[in-house]
Amino acid sequence: MFDETAVRSHFPMIQNHPDLVYLDNAATAFKSDHMIQVVNDFYLRGTSNVHRGDYGLSIKASNDFDHVRDIVKDFIHAKSSKEIVFTSGASQSLNWIAYSYGLNHLKKDDVILTTEAEHASNILPWFKVCEATGAKIEYIPMQNDGSIHMDDFKNAMHDKVKIFAIAYVSNVLGVVQPLKQMIQIAHEYGAITVIDAAQAVPHMPVDVRDLDCDYLAFSGHKLGAAGGSGVLYGKYDLLENNDPPLYGGGSNARFDLCGNILLKHAPFKYEAGTPNVEGVLSLGAAIEFLQSIGMENIFEHEKQLKRYAVQRLQPLTHVHLYNATSESGLITFNVDGIFAQDVASYLNRHNIAVRSGNHCAKILVEIIGTSETVRASCYLYNTKADIDRLVDALTDITLEKCIEAAMV
Ligand SMILES: Cc1ncc(COP(=O)(O)O)c(C=O)c1O
Question: Which residues surround ligand 1 with Cβ inside 6 Å?
């Protein structure tokens, strides 16, 4: 049973801003008291470096830190905790994949297959790989609601496709892609599959073994961990048989005067430098909190809020919804005749936080016909009352009111 009141009671941001409707969860999420307590304890009682000290504090911090790898492993159903690399977020994870695997395996005329709906972090690194290797990008045809027909996907696959890189859930349209089938087909062509799960892992159950993806990336802050924490999942052989893009302390077993370097085994060879200890601890705590609620419950709650929002917004003829059917907590829209940013500022006057703009998916314009939209994104602590406040504010929005609101 999903107890909305109990869930909300764990988020100090909600207690501290009782009148705020926070619907910008796709950007970042509020933090639970459990996670704040774990980080606080580390700062107040546990501060020390990990894997570098032979004293009690450091040994405890190292054990707690290492335990988070197991927590993440279980959370995404990886085979081994050695497949979990800690990073600073989805962007770093995706860059790591591009620069460790992509740069070393792609050659001229190889193809990276992706979509026009990708976040900058899952396309710019691939542009750079193409620049360096002579590989090229191809895009899978998409419907204007962001969905992909399986026939279009099959037609887009061919022998030259070496990497298939895609967001599990689009950060603009919220479409959950049928990845399992896509990954199976991509593998039949020998392609490596790279999943940007930044908008998936915080909101729904994700099982990397069931998906059989090769790499998967997500950020900690979007699931309630501290900023600067994230995960790169990779099948062990891929991690082990490729070199990291960054070198430094902690990632090598030895090196000598002549420049010979012996790296540690994966995942440690990808974690050069002092890690973000408090970020990793916060990641473990945030995941534990989500697990105490249940990912199925969270996903179902968000889908219900989305359906409710669609049902209430559809009668508003001046509101254009771009993703009425996608099954996630993202509601993306425009108001006729008003710039997205002016709508967001107007909502802000009503103490409703949403995001406006292109949401870092700058080539999606070709698919949905507009570069700017307003995005309201739900998480486990949002309620139907939040949606009501959004819909009420949009019901009588006019350009004049937006101008008035901007002048106050
Ligand atoms: C789909 C998607 N991929 C990647 C990212 C990048 O995440 P981060 O900025 O936490 O690295 C985001 C962030 O909004 C996203 O929505």
Answer: 26, 89-91, 119, 121-122, 167, 171, 196, 198-199, 219
